[in-house]
Structures are given as structure tokens and as C-alpha cells.
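During the second half of the funding period, the structural biology subgroup turned its attention to how the target accommodates small molecules. The most pressing case was guanosine-5'-diphosphate, which had performed well in the primary screen but for which no bound structure existed. We therefore specified the complex as follows and requested a full 3D prediction, including the ligand pose.
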Amino acid sequence: MLHEGRVIQVDAKVCHVEVEGRILPCVPRGHHFEHRREERRPFAVGDLVRVDLSDVPGAIEERQERRTVLFRASAGEGRRAQVLVANADQVLVVASIRDPAFSPSHPDRVLAAAEHGDLEGIVCVNKVDLARKGEAEEAAGIYRRAGYPALLTSGLRGDGLAELRAALEGKVTVLAGSSGVGKSTLLNALAPGLDLRVAPVSERTGEGRHTTTGVRMVRLPFGALVVDTPGIRNFALWRVEAADVRLLFRGMRGLERRCRFPSCLHCEEPGCAVRSAVKRGKVAPSRYASYLEVLDECQRERKESASEGRREGRARTPRQPRAPIEDEDASEAGARRGPRERR
Ligand SMILES: Nc1nc2c(ncn2[C@@H]2O[C@H](COP(=O)(O)OP(=O)(O)O)[C@@H](O)[C@H]2O)c(=O)[nH]1
Ligand SMILES: [Mg+2]
Ligand SMILES: [Zn+2]
């Protein structure tokens, strides 16, 4: 008899699967490792699976089709995609107004990855207790005008917690945001007693080394599932065509229909409706700047993977999974470049 479960953590050898309220270690059956080319591991946090519990550990027999996905690029030979979270409803991207200073680039990228994977996006402008008058509203306004809900919160002082709780209730939410913006503090404020220090920490600290990403799903007492992504600095856009990057930026998408050229990438083309909207204050300059960054990265990635494909003759045989422990910094360095390095 098979049981329905949900993967809540993926370690090197086992997946931790929540089955009828219990968390059980389960091992994927061997056939899950065959016929995979681009994906590094067969299971991700959030996967809905059917498990056979007649032995310990149990065995994962089947995986449901994924409704949504968030990728993380895995660098190195072959550059395969890695699904970091499956079947989440939404991404909540937390950005602090100060300490660290508000920077719209990170939320923009996360929101683009959410669009790409069919997830909803919510922005949380946090540490409003440190904001000067109007500052937090201004930051939130960038996202609200683009069409995203934006909350004003302070995990420390308690602002906006009721709204945040309402936004998470009944949903599976991926928590994103740079280190130090206050994610753990917010979760602890929402669910006191939930000891987040037990969460696997990023490999950089040297702890939690048995886990592959440190990504883990936790259940909050008011009926919310939250995926914490410590140490994951960014989600990846996996092989997106330049023309499709246009569709990942809410507030700008749709405007391409009014550009003089249908193929307009909103860079330097004449008669560009997006650039004109930026000039008229209809599109935030920071959103447009983030779009150009993401466009540039996607174009570069496609070029690199095309040349890799040529080198490898394209007919690659399916690989066995390699040692899944990877260094966060090493793998991110190949996958992402900072905005400074554009052009
Ligand atoms: N002023 C202020 N500081 C905060 C707030 N939330 C968190 N902090 C501080 O910011 C630092 C990082 O918080 P943490 O929750 O660990 O951030 P995380 O890395 O995103 O999980 C800690 O020193 C917190 O005390 C807030 O709402 N206001
Ligand atoms: Mg934290
Ligand atoms: Zn254009």
C-alpha cells in the first residue's frame, strides 16, 4: 500500500517526507535516477510523492507532476538545472529598508523567477521601524504599481504581522531575501516557539553539511507551509529566451505590443514603449534596470550553454547523480554574475 506524502527536506541520501503528520526518511527508488539529463536530483522540497513504508527507510515510488517550480542553477560541467522547490503557491521576498540597505534588484530577480515558475509574488518591506517618514511606502509603491502586493513589516516591533499571517495562511510560501533582512525574526514573531535555529544552516557556516541546500519546509501553527531558503542567494532563470524575459516583469509586460518593433527587447531600439513609460514615470527606473540585468544574464547563459552543447556534441548520456554536496559559493559564482559585470 502506498501513502501520499510531501517532501520537506532533501539530504544527500534521503528525503524527509511528511506522511500523515509524521516526518519519515525515505529513499528514492533507483529508477528515479535514470533518464534525467538536465536535472540534478530527482526530488525537491515540496514534491508530492507516494511512498512505500513497509521498510525503514521508506521508498519513494512516484512523484506527482509539478504544478510550479523554482530553480536554482547548478554550475559546473553540464550546467544542469536544479529544482529547489516544487508546488509552492507563492514567493515572499523580504527586503529590509535599512541594515542591509534597501536594494530593489534582489526582489526584482526573485519576482522574475517566480513568474517563470508560475508562482505568485509578494514583497515584504521589512524593518520599517528603521525607516524615515515615507521611505517604506515609497519602496512598497514600486512593487504595488507593478502589480504585486507589498506589505510593510517589522518583525522586531510587530508592524504588519497580522497582514503577513493572512498572506501566508493556507498557502505554501517560499521565503526569499538576502541574509540579514529579518526573515527568521519574522517567522519567529509569527510562530513563537518554532525554533528556527534547528533549521539546517548554510554550508558556509560549516554546519548542516549533510544537507544539500539547507532548504526546508516548516509548518506554521496557523495552517501555513513555509520554505526557508538559507544560503540561497538567488533563484535561477533556466534557459529563458531573451524575448520571454519581457514577460517576467510585471508592470512592463504587455507594453511590448506598443513598441515599434514586435521583437523589441526594450534596450536601444527606437519607438520603445517601455523606455517611454520609464521616462513618463509609469515604470520604476529600478524595475527597468533589473530587467536589463536579467536580460543580459539570460542572453549570456544561453550563449554559454550553446557553446557547451557544441563541445559535448549534444548527445549526452544520462548521468548518474554526482556527489550532491556542493559548496554554495562555488556553485553560485558560476551561475550568477553581479550587476557590475554587465557588458
Ligand atoms: N531594527 C530591526 N531589526 C531587525 C528586524 N528584524 C530583524 N532585525 C535584526 O536583523 C538581524 C538579522 O535578522 P534575521 O531574522 O536573522 O535575518 P535573516 O538572515 O533574514 O533570517 C538581527 O540582528 C535582527 O535582530 C526589525 O524588524 N527591525
Ligand atoms: Mg535566517
Ligand atoms: Zn520596447
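Two results from this model are relevant to the next phase. The radius of gyration is 21 Å. The domain at 2-65 is CATH 2.40.50.140 (OB fold (Dihydrolipoamide Acetyltransferase, E2P)).
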